[in-house]
């Protein structure tokens, strides 16, 4: 039999700290590791100077077609962006009125960002959305108070992309929730209907839906009642997105334990009440990353409407450059520009979704 | 008819145009539509509504155009569309008049030294999808055993871009299109050669929906009226003056001075005078948009009046 | 069976099946008087949970009738579609239930958990509902946790919140389904203490539990179930000292060995 | 019951209304409908074909050519995205910080840019920056890379039908670029690369998540019976991860197949492109779009069914 | 501390940290003789699992030295990179381990679970490995389950398979980390029975468990840990009747109350 003495806790022996140690461990710990690092570095060093030359050192920054022509092949011509930025960003919107789409997009962006912040989750948010949409359409459409009327066929570029993405998300969400609830309904007919809708829509490509919205839809309606093509495309995207969102929402619904529904019933809540107050908030919270991924897809997919001749961001780049022999050769720089825009927005969304996840974990547990 | 009523009611005509063929219908830097097809549309608007600007322009890709017309999204399709039997008979469309006589041709980079389309054996050819060009190309290739390889793009500008990037050894579409593309989109027009062969007949003209003969008649006679106006020397500049003092019975009839042709069409007396006042006669429209003084630079050629040895032969307005 | 006015819950030959073949409740006849405290026990899978979930209309049954505080719950499919819906709502307002897994709403604060029912079912305005909720939290001794979220509390505290939530609708009857069995041993006692306090206040309680000490000191009656049937019912003293049926004897023997 | 009946009736009414409208509209405008057009001669050529096709063949055959082109791109894309995705996914778990960072960057970049833009960029790179066909880069006079695509030697028969008739044919420079051998068009290369690289980013995430999902207890158990690191990966981690990876991987394959419809934007003659052309030539819009939707739907259901069978085969056996 | 030849495991001032600040093993000095059966107990979080995982080289440590059947496991970073890898493999061949969560490979049949090690580590051909595996399955009384998959077995059966798997490499030492605590009460006994049988066969066993009856009847020695230190070691009889340290007394008191 033995009894040991009390041993006080002490700190671990000093491990080498700091970035140098990190580098040593991460990049040169073990010979295979070191070899990989060297190979990657060699590759990087061989590729980088050329790339840097092209993007930076040899690049032409002024909208100077002749300088660009001279630098062609060795350096990028960022001047093309300077020259064409307005056309790329705003499409065929009348040039004198460009402040309107700019203002409208900024308003919309600000509102979207505000809606993402917990601090702003106040009562005024809902009316704010109504107000901003009203302002957006008023600004874009004009036709009052001295603002020149601009028909929707001339809307284009970034505002169009933003509007289509946000509006179709807004429209798709409630539909998705209904579909998801429907797929779990006790009523077999409704269940089957919702399941069929979701599976059918998920089985076809978006562009076939867009074709349908833009070519066929008018045939389905009584003669003369054809809504604006923008509206039809918007509906098409929303109906399509709803099917995908519905699956995400359904996964969330499944993650809510049955006990929650029982508990809600036991305090007297009816079916709709318990879904609205108890199940959905938890279900949607549980699938924020999934929802955000779907939102990102919708935003990216908005680029497909160029295929049905609407000039959103991707389309307006084509519009801006492909008809202009002087600047057409610098398409790749144009693509870099819009790629950067798409990337920033999508990356911001996925960052945000990770942030929300962390917030939730922190807020609800100890 | 019904179409005319709805148009009058909403006080605007919806006209389908192409998404961008310089000289025919293209947006200028201000986003305004200009071109021959556009002017014809304007003439119709002026004749019907009294104002050439009461138009909603609907740019359409080639796959969209027929359904857009069929479904009522546009009232007139004025979009360099070839009139063919299939289109006229089976697709719910009706042609009104021929506004431009064209034919399909080839363009090649001058450096290839190709002088005739028959030398294109085995070449890759850029073409836009959903056009008569695709079929003509296939026929031409088969007849001459050329084994041409089409690369088909869904949009006109995509096909242009691919040709100028060097993806294809030749580019085929209507010669007017080739000329306008070469003029406006080639860096140096001299580097590209339009080959002499015309491999098809391409009568282009505005189309309307089937089933409304009154509306068809209006569009048909506006086009004929513009041609007739040229034949009779009525121009944008002199129309008012002629209307006031011309003693020529034909002019008087055309401008509604002596006879009310408008009533027969369901319009007022001045319909043609307004149209001419808005866009000029056919010759003026042609010269302004695609004529030799414009970048597109097309000689009148077949599009001269019959009196000058061309094909434009306006049906008599009486 | 007497039909005295005192009875607040009455099972009349209730039969229930899961699926087609699994007969989970068999000819249940049981009467509980107003203010009575009944403990239901029995081996795992014997149908205890099912029994008390029937009282709250969380489970439908296929045969028989169940009267809860004067409201009749009929067998499933017995022609009373629309009336049935209303009966269910009435019953649920009069019956509070506490679950084994607490089933608090994790996305709502403790206070919101408590006011959800009163506000959306009874239609109380928020300030009133909150005042009342705070009173109930006092009753289970955790008023100071009102603004935390459920997952930030210990198991014992969570279960006490669940009890307070059940009390917020001022129910006539309180149902407990193994309220302590998901708790760490140290926390069992705090919940049992709260339950004992409640039992002293005259509310009708039906409690599924294996806490025999609690049953002995609090229950008026013990009901023993096995394989979906009521096997034996007795006063606690009698039940623990000399159970009549062989199965109850077995069951008690096992409990003793484990304890 | 009432609700169900109402919902069904409502839906039915809506559908009937739409069909009725369509019929009215089509009748009023003299639009012909029906499937007879599939038997008409196509009248157009198709640039790339796996089975013989010329303008004299029927439209039905044209659709078949388009479908085969779609499948060709989809299959190659699936191969590419699986290989690349697995590499990048494993790279994200590598010990080397640099490699990890690079793979992460790859995923972020390719995931966050619309596929259409990526396709256009690939195509642009190919047709803008490769040499003209008459100045093709060649490798040993056997491989030629140019704006006309990648030409390589192929086995061809000279039509006599005997075995000896098969011989290798080398591509060679002719008046209009490269003739002989076989070639991949730049459209095909761009679509395949675009789809492959885009989907690879998603596959990489699937692979990474799959490997991370293997409980650490399994790996410890493997180590404690003495398996080496590589054996653990091969015998325990990989088979377990595979089961997690398979279902989302199927989804990615389905997405890739559906996304191949974007090929139409860069002139690759896939099913959608052929349907588009047909729609224009015949005016049968409803029918052509129905063909597109039905074919993709069938492909989806078929893949899903196959994968379900596979899934069941590899599912862990439980009681 | 004696350095007699009998010792099969020897901890020499082993210290381990999780992160920089969490000192989880403190100056561990412990010697276990060949054939000895040692039970490690102590409150949750005291470092018991960490301790026995060190023996199997599943956890590295930062200070001290650990000898397992003659093979030395050095502290992390002590210059023996390549040699260290080999030492780890040697140790793992001589030590079998049974986990709380069984950790059977769910994608392999029971037989494949058992032959995986022998075939790929010891390089045995399949027939031999299978014969041996069947023998081990006999030993834990479930030979008839050889062709099932782990998830098709009950918890007790799974844990017995896990024990058989550990035995298949003919280890010198068997480690058990709470082998019964993930089991349903009825199944605990079957596993304990198997372990008791094994204990009778002279293999060295180190076992983390709270099954005090098992400890009493099987162990040669009990080691009590708290806060990462060895607090007390004693023969079972002495430990249970009169623990010396205050902490062990407390711990035993709690166990009794719960039991
Ligand atoms: N939704 C269900 N579908 C099918 N069988 C069920 C369902 N719910 C419970 N059962 C089965 O009915 C039987 C009784 O279940 P119940 O939950 O009422 O038992 P219990 O007495 O509460 O047991 P425990 O003490 O384990 O909670 C069990 O065998 C259970 O497996
Ligand atoms: N990988 C890890 N990283 C950081 N801390 C850890 C890690 N693993 C265990 N710990 C912490 O180390 C301490 C000792 O863990 P250990 O698992 O050895 O305890 P134990 O005595 O086995 O407890 P139990 O009886 O609960 O299994 C615990 O406080 C635990 O939270
Ligand atoms: Mg129960
Ligand atoms: Mg442990």
UniProtKB/TrEMBL annotation, chain A:
Keyword Methyltransferase: no
Gene3D superfamilies: MetI-like
Membrane topology: Multi-pass membrane protein
GO BP terms in the entry: amino acid transport
InterPro entries: AA_ABC_transptr_permease_3TM (IPR010065), ArtM/GltK/GlnP/TcyL/YhdX-like (IPR043429), MetI-like (IPR000515), MetI-like_sf (IPR035906)
Ranges annotated as spanning the membrane: 31-52, 99-117, 124-145, 157-180, 192-217, 229-246, 332-352
SUPFAM superfamilies linked to this entry: MetI-like
Keywords: Cell membrane, Membrane, Transmembrane, Transmembrane helix, Transport
Family indicated by similarity: Belongs to the binding-protein-dependent transport system permease family. HisMQ subfamily.
UniProt xrefs under NCBIfam families: HEQRo_perm_3TM
Protein name: Amino acid ABC transporter permease
UniProt source species: Malikia granosa
UniProtKB/TrEMBL annotation, chains C, E:
Keyword Membrane: yes
One matching Pfam family: ABC_tran
UniProt-recorded name of the protein: Glutamine ABC transporter ATP-binding protein
Keywords, in A-Z order: ATP-binding, Cell membrane, Membrane, Nucleotide-binding, Transport
Organism: Malikia granosa
InterPro entries (UniProt xref): AAA+_ATPase, ABC_ATPase_HisP-typ, ABC_transporter-like_ATP-bd, ABC_transporter-like_CS, MetN_ABC_transporter-like, P-loop_NTPase
Record PROSITE patterns: ABC_TRANSPORTER_1 (PS00211), ABC_TRANSPORTER_2 (PS50893)
UniProt family annotation: Belongs to the ABC transporter superfamily.
GO molecular function terms attached to this record: ABC-type amino acid transporter activity; ATP binding; ATP hydrolysis activity
Residue ranges constituting the ABC transporter domain according to the UniProt record: 9-252
SMART domains named in the record: AAA
UniProtKB/TrEMBL annotation, chain D:
GO molecular function: transmembrane transporter activity
A Pfam family this chain is assigned to: BPD_transp_1
Keywords: Amino-acid transport, Cell membrane, Membrane, Transmembrane, Transmembrane helix, Transport
UniProt keyword Transmembrane present: yes
Coiled coil: none
Span of the signal peptide: none
Gene Ontology cellular component list: ATP-binding cassette (ABC) transporter complex
Residue ranges occupied by any ABC transmembrane type-1 domain in the UniProt entry: 67-307
Bilayer-spanning residue ranges: 73-93, 289-310
Its membrane topology: Multi-pass membrane protein
Presence of the UniProt keyword Transmembrane helix in the record: yes
GO biological process, one term: amino acid transport
Localization per record: Cell inner membrane; Cell membrane
InterPro entries, A to Z: AA_ABC_transptr_permease_3TM, ArtM/GltK/GlnP/TcyL/YhdX-like, MetI-like, MetI-like_sf
PROSITE patterns attached to this UniProt entry: ABC_TM1
Family label: Belongs to the binding-protein-dependent transport system permease family. HisMQ subfamily.
Protein known as: Amino acid ABC transporter permease
């Amino acid at each position: 039999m033995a009894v040991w003495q009390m041993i006080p806790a002490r700190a671990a022996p000093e491990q080498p700290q700091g970035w140098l140690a990190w580098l040593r461990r991460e990049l040169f710990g073990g010979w295979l590791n070191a070899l990989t690092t060297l190979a990657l570095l060699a590759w990087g060093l061989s590729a980088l100077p050329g790339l840097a030359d092209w993007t930076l050192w040899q690049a032409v920054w002024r909208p100077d077609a002749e300088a660009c022509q001279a630098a062609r092949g060795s350096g990028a011509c960022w001047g093309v962006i300077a020259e064409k930025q307005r056309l790329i960003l705003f499409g065929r919107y009348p040039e004198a009125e460009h402040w309107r789409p700019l203002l409208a997009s900024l308003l919309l962006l600000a509102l979207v960002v505000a809606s993402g912040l917990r601090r702003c989750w106040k009562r005024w948010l809902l009316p704010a959305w109504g107000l901003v949409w009203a302002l957006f359409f008023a600004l874009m459409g004009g036709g009052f108070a001295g603002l020149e009327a601009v028909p929707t066929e001339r809307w284009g570029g970034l505002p169009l992309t933003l509007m289509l993405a946000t509006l179709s998300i807004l429209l798709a969400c409630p539909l998705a929730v209904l579909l998801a609830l429907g797929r779990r309904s006790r009523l077999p007919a409704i269940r089957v209907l919702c399941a069929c809708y979701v599976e059918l829509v998920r089985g076809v490509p978006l562009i076939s839906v867009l074709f349908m919205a833009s070519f066929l839809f008018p045939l389905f309606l009584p003669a003369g009642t054809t809504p604006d093509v923008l509206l039809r495309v918007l509906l098409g995207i929303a109906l399509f997105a709803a099917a995908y969102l519905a699956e995400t929402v359904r996964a969330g619904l499944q993650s809510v334990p049955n006990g929650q529904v029982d508990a809600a019933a036991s305090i007297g809540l009816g079916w709709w009440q318990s879904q609205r107050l108890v199940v959905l908030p938890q279900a949607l919270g549980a699938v924020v990353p999934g929802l955000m991924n779907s939102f990102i897809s919708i935003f990216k997919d908005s680029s497909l409407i160029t295929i049905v001749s609407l000039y959103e961001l991707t389309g307006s780049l084509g519009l801006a450059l492909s008809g202009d022999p002087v600047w057409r050769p610098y398409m790749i720089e144009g693509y870099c520009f819009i790629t950067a825009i798409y990337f920033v927005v999508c990356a911001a969304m996925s960052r945000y979704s990770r942030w929300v996840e962390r917030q939730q974990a922190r807020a609800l547990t100890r | 008819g019904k179409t005319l009523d709805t148009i009058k009611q909403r006080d605007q005509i919806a006209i389908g145009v192409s998404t961008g063929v310089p000289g025919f219908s293209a947006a200028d830097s201000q986003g305004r539509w200009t071109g021959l097809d556009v002017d014809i549309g304007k003439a119709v608007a002026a004749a019907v509504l009294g104002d050439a600007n009461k138009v909603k322009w609907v740019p359409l890709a080639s796959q969209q155009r027929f359904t857009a017309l069929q479904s009522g999204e546009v009232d007139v399709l004025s979009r360099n569309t070839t009139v063919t039997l299939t289109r006229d008979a089976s697709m719910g469309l009706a042609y009104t008049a021929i506004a431009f006589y064209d034919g399909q041709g080839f363009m090649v980079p001058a450096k290839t030294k190709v002088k005739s389309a028959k030398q294109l054996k085995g070449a890759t050819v850029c073409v836009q999808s959903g056009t008569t060009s695709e079929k003509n190309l296939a026929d031409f290739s088969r007849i001459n055993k050329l084994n041409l390889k089409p690369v088909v793009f869904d949009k006109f500008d995509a096909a242009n871009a691919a040709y100028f990037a060097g993806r294809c050894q030749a580019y085929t579409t209507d010669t007017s299109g080739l000329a306008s593309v070469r003029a406006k989109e080639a860096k140096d027009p001299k580097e590209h050669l339009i080959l002499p062969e015309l491999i098809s007949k391409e009568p282009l003209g505005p189309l309307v929906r089937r089933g409304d003969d009154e509306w068809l008649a209006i569009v048909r006679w506006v086009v004929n009226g513009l041609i007739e106006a040229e034949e009779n020397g009525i121009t944008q500049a002199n129309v008012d003056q002629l209307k006031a003092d011309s003693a020529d019975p034909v002019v008087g009839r055309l401008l509604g001075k002596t006879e009310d042709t408008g009533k027969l069409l369901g319009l007022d007396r001045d319909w043609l005078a307004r149209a001419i006042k808005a866009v000029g006669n056919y010759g003026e429209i042609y010269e302004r948009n695609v004529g030799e003084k414009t970048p597109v630079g097309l000689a009148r050629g077949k599009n001269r009046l019959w009196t000058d040895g061309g094909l434009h032969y306006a049906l008599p307005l009486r | 069976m007497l039909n005295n006015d005192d009875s607040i819950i009455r099972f009349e030959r209730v039969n229930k099946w899961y699926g087609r073949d699994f007969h989970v409740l068999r000819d249940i006849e049981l009467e509980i008087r107003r203010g009575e405290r009944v403990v239901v026990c029995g081996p795992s899978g014997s149908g205890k949970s099912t029994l008390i979930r029937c009282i709250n209309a969380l489970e439908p049954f296929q045969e028989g009738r169940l009267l809860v505080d004067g409201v009749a719950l009929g067998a499933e499919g017995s022609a009373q579609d629309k009336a049935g819906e209303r009966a269910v709502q009435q019953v649920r307002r009069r019956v509070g239930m506490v679950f084994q897994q607490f089933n608090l709403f994790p996305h709502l604060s403790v206070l919101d958990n408590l006011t959800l029912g009163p506000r959306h079912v009874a239609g109380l305005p928020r300030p009133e509902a909150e005042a009342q909720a705070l009173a109930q939290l006092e009753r289970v001794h955790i008023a100071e946790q009102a603004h935390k979220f459920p997952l930030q509390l210990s198991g014992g505290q969570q279960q006490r919140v669940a009890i307070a939530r059940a009390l917020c609708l001022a129910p006539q009857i309180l149902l407990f389904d193994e309220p302590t069995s998901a708790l760490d041993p140290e926390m069992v006692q705090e919940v049992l203490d709260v339950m004992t306090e409640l039992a002293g206040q005259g509310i009708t309680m039906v409690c599924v539990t294996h806490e025999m000490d609690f049953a002995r000191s609090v229950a008026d009656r013990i009901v023993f179930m096995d394989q979906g049937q009521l096997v034996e019912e007795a006063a606690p003293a009698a039940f623990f000292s000399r159970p009549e049926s062989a199965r109850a004897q077995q069951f008690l023997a096992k409990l003793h060995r484990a304890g | 019951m009432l609700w169900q009946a109402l919902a069904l009736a409502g839906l039915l009414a809506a559908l009937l209304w739409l069909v009725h409208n369509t019929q009215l509209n089509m009748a009023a405008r003299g639009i012909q409908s029906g499937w007879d057009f599939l038997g008409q001669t196509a009248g157009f050529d198709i640039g790339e074909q796996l089975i013989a096709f010329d303008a004299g063949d029927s439209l039905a055959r044209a659709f078949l050519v388009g479908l085969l082109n779609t499948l060709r791109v989809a299959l190659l894309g699936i191969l590419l995205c699986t290989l690349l995705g697995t590499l990048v996914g494993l790279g994200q778990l590598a010990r080397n910080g640099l490699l990890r960072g690079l793979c992460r960057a790859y995923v972020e970049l390719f995931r966050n840019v619309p596929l259409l833009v990526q396709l256009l960029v690939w195509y642009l790179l190919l047709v803008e920056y490769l040499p003209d066909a008459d100045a093709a880069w060649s490798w040993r006079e056997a491989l030629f890379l140019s704006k006309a695509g990648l030409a390589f030697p192929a086995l061809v028969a000279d039509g006599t039908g005997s075995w000896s008739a098969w011989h290798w044919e080398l591509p060679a420079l002719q008046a209009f670029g490269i003739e002989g051998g076989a070639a991949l068009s730049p459209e095909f290369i761009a679509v395949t690369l675009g789809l492959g690289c885009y989907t690879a980013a998603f596959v990489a995430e699937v692979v990474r998540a799959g490997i991370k999902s293997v409980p650490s207890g399994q790996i410890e158990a493997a180590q404690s019976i003495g398996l080496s690191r590589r054996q653990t990966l091969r015998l325990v981690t990989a088979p377990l991860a595979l089961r997690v990876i398979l279902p989302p991987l199927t989804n990615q394959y389905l997405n890739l197949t559906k996304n191949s419809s974007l090929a139409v934007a860069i002139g690759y003659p896939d099913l959608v492109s052929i349907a588009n052309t047909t729609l224009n030539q015949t005016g049968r819009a409803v029918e052509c779009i129905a063909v597109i939707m039905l074919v993709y739907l069938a492909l989806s259901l078929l893949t899903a069914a196959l994968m379900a069978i596979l899934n069941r085969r590899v599912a862990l056996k439980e009681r």
